[in-house]
Recover the amino acids of this structure.
């Protein structure tokens, strides 16, 4: 396992949904609610199709070397595309935002816990 945790958020929009596809998304919406959002190695899809046609796919991986981060972004995008295409959903406007968690400042709770550990 790598020393740097990388989180990737892939966003996009469902495109040209059929009535049946929209109904399927609505029927499964509870399982894809933002309350269940998580950054995982398999990826986690969330959406609120009743409100808007957008989705967010969260993906996590780890790397030892900073030079491997772009590959994680590509894997996250590919995982999102696999999820969408395996369910038969067309999409558009795919973007990805990648965060190296080792560079993210700790909040007050994290600083307290780091102080106790050190």
């Amino acid at each position: 396992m790598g020393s740097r945790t990388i989180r990737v958020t892939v966003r996009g929009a469902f495109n040209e949904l059929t009535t049946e596809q929209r109904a399927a998304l609505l029927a499964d919406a509870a399982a894809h609610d933002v309350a269940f959002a998580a950054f995982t190695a398999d990826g986690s899809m969330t959406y609120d199709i009743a409100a808007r046609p957008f989705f967010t796919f969260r993906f996590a991986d780890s790397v030892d070397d900073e030079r491997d981060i772009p590959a994680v972004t590509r894997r996250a995008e590919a995982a999102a595309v696999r999820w969408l295409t395996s369910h038969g959903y067309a999409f558009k406007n795919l973007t990805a935002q990648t965060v190296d968690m080792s560079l993210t400042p700790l909040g007050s709770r994290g600083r307290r816990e780091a102080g106790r550990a050190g």
